[in-house]
Amino acid sequence: MNAATMLRHLHLYASALAAACFIATMAFAQEPAAPTAPRDAPRYQPAAPDAVPEATPEATPEADRTAQPTDAGPLAPLEWLAGCWRGTVNQREFREHWLPLRGGMLIGAGQQVSRGRMQDYEYLRIEPRADGVVFSQFSGDRKETTFKLASTTIEDKDTIFTFANVADAFPARLVYRRGADGWLYETIDGTLDGKERRVIYPLRRIDCESGELILK
To answer: Is 0.70 topped by the overall pTM?
Structure first.
């Protein structure tokens, strides 16, 4: 190869190299720049859990109980019945459980068990009617028996509520006597088969869950 030919080849090589460098420079200039956050953009903060509103006195169970209106009226003297009562005589246990006075009515249930076997049960209701305060009791195997409050008397420190049977049947009277120190004496009496009958059931107020005596 003579000098002229070598010189021509070097010129062509330099031209090609310059063209390649120009193309590479243009391609780099046209690439989009990586996005950058503005200087004043807030940094990422994890979302806080929904705030739980603090309980207000109006929303607490204690406030709800105190906010309920008191059931006044003819049954107010019998409000003390609410709770559980138990008595035992000759291995025969009898219980009564009364719900608190609500809606102008007292509702309860009674149960009698002897030597571990069910003897009797009844549903109880005391309510004011147009003709006075009425005590009704009934169980699943007999019709309802209704008594009407005939008198309320005080003897010593005891209060005696006497209910008279509205029908000519036994028992003629049902007596609830509120005694001291958590005692309740229930008496049924009347004439049965031509003879005067009287049965007294002594009960004590107990804690509905533990069964322990409550003196009040």
So the answer is: no
